[in-house]
Amino acid sequence: MFTFTVTKFDSKLNLKNSCRLELIETFDTACLLNNSGNFLTLLADNRSGVPESINIKCDCFRKGFKLPEKYRFDFSDSKAWSSDIKCKIFKPRKKVINLIEKHVKKKKNKIRSLKKLEDLITKASLRDIIGMGRGLTPSGDDFLVGSLNTTAAFSKKLFKKLSSEISPGIEKTTSLSRHFLELALKKRAGEDIISLLKAIAAGNEKNIDKYSENILNIGATSGYYTLRGIAWALKKIL
Fold it and tell me: Which stretches of 102-222 are assigned E, i.e. beta strand?
């Protein structure tokens, strides 16, 4: 029996060693699995966690990851982290928003943004943004995840408003993107986003810079639109 050595995992993850996982897609440092009808993300050891993820010691992603016929996960030396967002009601300082927007603008100069999406963001037509863009997680959904994560942390009223606008339309996007939107609606986020939200609450400029850059480096445009959503939500709260 093959043993996957787990180094880190989302403590909210519902996984039993006895369950049979199905491989959906493999990437350079990650793979997506079907976990009894839900998505599970297996990540290389050096990756930042996402909701419903497990980090493992493994160099086989780039070689074409395959699930062995018999396997188990060894959690004995692993560390747990929580994807739960803790609400901290406060109004963000303008200086904090400016710091994040500085990173957004720097990235914007390097990518080809979607004009239609930009127009909808300006008009705040959130329901129309769902599913807009290409890929497993369309850009519009990345923006909405960032917005939901931020309001979940800092504004119960705005989170409730955004949730009521977004939740009826999530069926029209990809299954993976719907998965992450559903998690955001349950007030759950990835490690780097939670670390950024904590840095914003503390006014820690060094960590705001650090985790903003980490988020921007997610995918080709996913991180960019997620950070756009975070900045947009902070301005709405302000």
Answer: none
Phi and psi angles of residue 141, each rounded to the nearest 5 degrees, phi first: -70, -40
Model confidence at 69, pLDDT cuts 50, 70, 90, reads confident
**Residue in the block written with tokens 């609606």:** 185
Alpha-carbon distances of 32 from 53, 82, 177, 210, rounded to whole Å: 9, 20, 12, 27
As a whole number, the mean pLDDT across the chain is: 88
* Beta carbons within 8 Å of 90's beta carbon, 6+ residues apart: 154, 201
Share of the chain above pLDDT 70, in %: 90
Q: Assign residue 98 a region: left if phi > 0, alpha if psi is -120 to 50, beta otherwise?
A: alpha
Residue 178 has pLDDT above 90, yes or no: yes
Amino acid at 217: N
Going from N- to C-terminal start, the domains of the chain cover 2-81, 94-237
Q: How many helices (H) and strands (E) are present in the chain, helices listed first? A: 9, 7
Confidence tier at 94 by pLDDT (50, 70, 90) = confident
Q: Any residues with CB less than 8 A from the CB of 148 and at least 6 apart, and which?
A: 159, 162, 163, 166, 181, 184, 185, 229, 233
Length of the chain: 238
